[in-house]
Design a protein that fits this description.
- The protein is α+β, with helices and mostly antiparallel strands and 734 residues long.
- It is 51% helix and 15% strand.
- The protein contains 28 helices and 19 strands.
- A five-stranded mixed beta sheet has the order 1-2-5-4-3. A five-stranded mixed beta sheet has the order 11-15-13-14-12.
- A hairpin with a 5-residue loop joins strand 4 and strand 5.
- Helix 7 runs antiparallel to helix 8.
- The longest helix is centred in the last third of the chain and has 32 residues.
- The protein is globular, with a radius of gyration of 30 Å.
């Protein structure tokens, strides 16, 4: 193995160079005394991390400097954040304590660093450490949003430098990023960072697709640039005649968003037309912003015909994260749809730097959508879900959703996520109104609580003092606020019922001559498979568990000893079964043969990039790394993820996968498809569902294949059938 030679002199020179670059990035926000604060933080970080190195072999200090640089340059944060970014790993990784930092830098810095420091200690094994850490970080968001912004800068740098990490760690971090951090960046208005995080996540979770799209984009680069130049030229001329100062440029769409479009519409790369957007940024005075944006819109649509369904006006009604812009899609000179975004310099800075820029312009801009969102987060945190995973899911759900605008009877505007119901609206107005809501009038027409609201609806809520939250409400509310309030109310009700159940159980156990103690309560809970004693008490109160069930428990306890021996023989039988099995997947760090099942949500086949997931009841399940559930599993349960790889096979085993076929309907088309699958490839078909509508043919076929090579070859041959326009692999039968 080649020895890594360290040149200390060269490294020290590089550290000084990077520190000077950081100071240059901070220059716009520096005030008196700030430079000394940054220097103190840098010196402390340098000293604390002096013996540490990153996986790449570089000095560890490169990382905090880079995080501080991102915070200053790409997010636009000030001195306090730069100090915290430089020190963000000091408490977690070195002997320096929060108290030491407080003495040197004060309470504000220590509060932010505490929010950035991971939780350590003993946890309930059923909970997720990642979710708990994320919840801790969100709790500090209520006090100081800089915690999240620095965490995003930290995550972005880790993602940019992840190639030196082990594969399973890459998958875990990338999945966590796409599941939580990218939606957070989106919600805070950091669109450039959100796109880069999504692209980098995809680079590690689905490298083949990522490379394929990146290569295609690169091949079309020159052609794209010529098109943009031809499109911009006449717009520039008219803007100059009108005396409007603006800069216009083409911006390619992110690889992740192109892939999403290909997946959702089941189309190849060549058919994705909006690979880029044209952005027009106007130099405008504050009071003329709206007028000038619409003037530029008029100029563009005079030159190119707009698509009337694709106009988005976020200038009159900005998004909740402060985003303002005018979007339209027009027909370009070569019969190609082009998205055009029109905004001023101020709007562009808010779009690029999100929260930090919003703060800077707050005085001049009365809109405070972002403040309202922070307030919503505070409301959710005031009543947090004890299960961190449920809390994260509820919270995440409201990060990415588009907004709809709803009016109260008096004309007040309320923003809600797309898909929100009348009940969500009631909880948004006030918790008590939500809890006692029995119906609503939408545009003066009576509707049920589950009625989905549309943009521009006017809603009046009808309440009753006899109403209280119901379990089924959770199935149709979408806002995190409504979910957390309903769950909280139901828990309180359940706790009251469980108290009664506790007394009933005590009496029943007495009649069966069983001592009422913690050990016996735990045994009974386990026997009936209840996760907690409260659940047991609740079911006793509801009558689900009665004296007959308790007698069964007593009888089972007595036969426990004999069943121990049966258990031992069952275990040895399992081991024997595993050893006899023709194993196709090796699992764990040392790649052993272990029993597993293939996950039906993504149907992995040999050749797919895979991982193992240790479930609570069903043993190890094998998923594809690009499985729709993978990012959630890895983000929340990283500690249950196992390495997995396909053993060398002799192509004797067949694996189930699905194909979606689209084409122009023709006589004998089904026969041609089945001939290719069954006769040319000798592949067995498990199920076939076909529909034809006005000359368009659509078919879903589940087939058994040996590996990805055979599948790719089969897809290629099917595409060659006359009339077939698209063949794509889909995840599962559902």
């Amino acid at each position: 193995m080649e020895e890594y030679v360290i040149d200390i002199e060269a490294e020290n020179k590089e550290i000084r160079k990077r520190y000077r670059a950081l100071l240059r990035a901070c220059k716009p926000t520096l005030q008196k005394g700030d430079k000394q604060q940054i220097r103190m933080a840098f010196d402390l970080a340098l000293e604390s991390h002096k013996d540490m190195r990153r996986k790449s072999g570089e000095p560890y200090i490169y990382h905090p400097i880079a995080v501080a640089q991102i915070a200053a340059e790409e997010i636009g944060l000030g001195t306090t954040s730069i100090v915290c970014a430089l020190l963000h790993d000091v408490v977690e990784d070195t002997s320096i304590t929060l108290q030491d930092i407080e003495e040197q830098f004060g309470k504000k810095v220590v509060r932010i660093i505490d929010g950035l420091t991971k939780i350590s200690g003993i946890f309930d094994p059923n909970s997720s450490m990642q979710a708990e850490n994320f919840r801790k970080m969100l709790l500090t968001l209520a006090d100081d949003v800089r915690v999240i912004l620095i965490k995003l800068a930290d995550r972005l740098h880790n993602m940019r430098t992840m190639e030196f990490m082990a594969r399973h760690k890459q998958l875990k971090i990338a999945s966590e990023t796409s599941y939580l951090y990218a939606p957070l960046a989106h919600r805070l208005g950091l669109y450039a960072i959100k796109s880069e995080l999504e692209d980098l996540s995809m680079k590690f979770t689905d490298p083949d697709t990522y490379k394929f799209i990146a290569k295609k984009l690169n091949e079309k680069k020159a052609e794209r640039e010529r098109f943009i130049a031809d499109f911009i030229s006449p717009v520039n001329e008219i803007l100059a005649e009108e005396g409007i100062h603006a800069s216009i440029f083409g911006r390619p769409k992110s690889i992740h968003s192109i892939w999403n479009k290909m997946r959702k519409k089941s189309i190849p790369f060549e058919e994705v037309y909006d690979l880029f957007a044209i952005r027009i940024i106007i130099d405008s005075e504050d009071e003329k912003e709206k007028t000038e944006c619409w003037k530029v819109y008029s100029i563009v649509t005079d030159l190119y015909r707009p698509n009337p369904d694709r106009l988005r006006d976020w200038i009159s009604s900005p998004k909740a994260n402060g985003y303002e812009s005018l979007h339209t899609t027009v027909m370009g000179p070569k019969g190609q749809w082009v998205e055009v975004q029109i905004r001023t310099r101020r709007m562009n800075e808010i779009a690029e730097k999100g929260f930090a820029a919003h703060w800077k312009y707050k005085e001049s801009n009365s809109d405070n959508g972002l403040d309202q969102w922070i307030q919503k987060v505070r409301d959710i945190l005031n009543n947090p879900e004890p299960n961190a995973l449920d809390f994260i899911d509820d919270f995440k759900m409201n990060l990415f959703s588009d907004e709809i605008f709803i009016f109260t009877p008096k004309g007040t505007l309320v923003q809600l996520p797309n898909g929100a119901t009348a009940l969500d609206f009631a909880f948004e107005i006030h918790t008590d109104i939500g809890a006692t809501c029995i119906g609503a009038k939408v545009n003066h027409k009576l509707v049920p609580l589950s009625h989905e609201l549309q943009n521009g609806d006017q809603v009046e809520i009808i309440t009753s003092s006899k109403q209280s939250p119901k379990e089924d409400w959770l199935s149709f509310v979408v806002t995190a606020k409504a979910k957390s309030k309903i769950k909280s109310s139901l828990k309180e009700e359940k706790r009251r019922v469980a108290e009664d159940g506790k007394e009933i159980l005590e009496r029943k156990l007495k009649s069966l001559k069983i001592t009422y103690n913690t050990e016996n309560i735990n045994k009974i809970s386990n026997y009936f498979k209840f996760p907690s004693s409260q659940e047991l008490f609740y079911n006793v109160a509801k009558g689900t568990i009665d004296i007959r069930n308790l007698r069964e428990f007593v009888a089972n306890e007595r036969s426990e000893d004999s069943s121990q021996n049966q258990f031992q023989s069952h275990i040895s039988g399992l081991v024997e079964k595993i050893n006899k099995k023709d194993d196709t997947i090796l699992i764990g760090d040392d790649f052993q043969k272990v029993d597993y099942t293939l996950a039906p949500c993504c149907n992995p086949i040999p050749g797919d990039d895979i991982f193992g997931f240790l479930t609570v009841n069903d043993g190890i399940k094998i998923h594809r790394t690009s499985c729709p559930n993978a990012s959630k599993l890895m983000a929340n349960y990283g500690y249950r993820i196992l390495k997995a790889k396909w053993a060398s096979l002799h192509n004797t085993l067949a694996f189930l996968t699905g194909l979606r076929i689209v084409g122009i309907d023709d006589v004998g088309l089904v026969n041609k498809i089945t001939t290719v699958i069954s006769q040319e490839f000798h592949v067995n078909i498990r199920s076939l569902s076909i529909s034809s509508n006005e000359g368009i043919f659509e078919g879903d076929i589940m087939v058994f294949v040996n590996d990805t090579d055979q599948l790719d070859s089969l897809i290629k041959h099917l595409k060659n059938i006359n009339g077939i326009t698209g063949v794509t692999r889909y995840e599962s039968e559902n």
